[in-house]
Design brief:
The chain is an alpha+beta fold and 301 residues long. The protein folds into 2 domains: 87 residues, Beta-grasp domain (Ubiquitin-like (UB roll)); 181 residues, Methylpurine-DNA glycosylase (MPG) (3-methyladenine DNA Glycosylase, Chain A, Roll), CATH 3.10.300.10. The chain is built from 7 helices and 13 strands.
């Protein structure tokens, strides 16, 4: 027998009643065997999860030790002792909860940033609810942070960054990619947190249509990708995230994964700006962006 660990994304965590479980499987067991075992143990999963017909369009995404496994390869993918299998089951719809309050954002960006991990970003688009769990962020301060857009003070482009906390700051880079930031701290200080990556949860079919023929793992694993998937652009710059309309954040369960901290990606500025460990992400999560390895140990802030 061999032992593997299975980690569940939302809403599977609620169905199982745990964020991760340890399972013993026979030697040479496959991903298809694992799926069948889980469906037998947890009958709350719908019929597609049982693995009766591997040719169906299963509404979940499977990763074995960080590597995606496609449906045709379930039966051929043999598991090994010590493997970590991450299963994400995107859903359409879902019950909304109250948006995060303004007091959540009214703190320094480096404090808010790790607290954003695990929260749910929601976009209402043409009557559909799109949602994803935040798995990677970066914090930026105001004029004292040489890597920040606020370094040289307010401009027409960054004026939303100096607004009250709980607003969206959306900008365009390279003339083609939008990036979503959450304004934090006191009004006028120019602090914000960049949302770098999401774990898709709801409305994934819409995200696929907007992103084109890319692997599911690449739907939202980058700031420009998630904005394209959720139709976030400059029209939402300055939007009040505390209203619970069009674009907002809802509380999610505390992450079980370790929170890693490291230097921000692709920034410019002085030595302090380049080395500040203000990029935070969930260790081992398959939807974290393909950024360089951290130059500091993974730690819980």
């Amino acid at each position: 027998m061999m032992e593997i660990t299975v980690r569940f994304g939302e809403p599977l965590r609620k169905t199982v009643g745990a964020r991760r479980i340890a399972l013993q499987l026979p030697e040479n067991a496959t991903a298809a065997d694992l799926i069948a075992r889980l469906a037998q143990t947890y009958p709350g999963f719908n019929a597609a999860f049982r693995g009766d017909d591997l040719g169906r369009d299963h509404p979940y995404i499977l990763f074995v030790s960080g590597k995606p496994v496609t449906r045709p390869n379930y039966a051929q993918t043999r598991l090994r002792h010590g493997d970590v299998v991450h299963i994400v089951m995107p859903v359409v719809g879902g019950s909304a909860t109250a948006p995060l309050p303004r007091t959540f954002y009214a703190r320094p960006a480096p404090e808010v940033a790790p607290n954003l991990l695990g929260q749910i970003l929601v976009r209402e688009l043409d009557g559909r609810r799109l949602a994803g769990r935040i798995v990677e962020v970066e914090a930026y301060l105001g004029p004292e942070d040489a890597a920040s857009h606020a370094f040289r003070g307010p401009t027409p482009r960054n004026r939303s960054m100096f607004g009250p906390p709980g607003r969206a700051y959306v900008y365009l880079i390279y003339g083609m990619h939008h990036c979503l930031n959450i304004v934090t701290g006191p009004e006028g200080e120019g602090q914000a947190v960049l949302i770098r990556a999401l774990e898709p949860l709801e409305g994934v079919d819409v995200m696929r249509a907007r992103r084109g023929p890319v692997p599911d793992r690449q739907l939202t694993n980058g700031p420009g990708k998630l904005c394209q998937a959720l139709a976030i652009d400059r029209r939402l710059d300055g939007h009040d995230l505390c209203l619970g309309e069009t674009l907002w954040l809802e509380p999610g369960p505390p992450p079980e994964e370790a929170i890693c901290a490291g230097p921000r990606v692709g920034v410019r500025g002085d030595a302090l700006a380049l080395h500040r460990a203000w990029r935070f992400y969930l260790k081992g999560h398959p939807y974290v962006s393909p950024a360089p390895q951290n130059r500091v140990p993974c730690s819980v802030p």
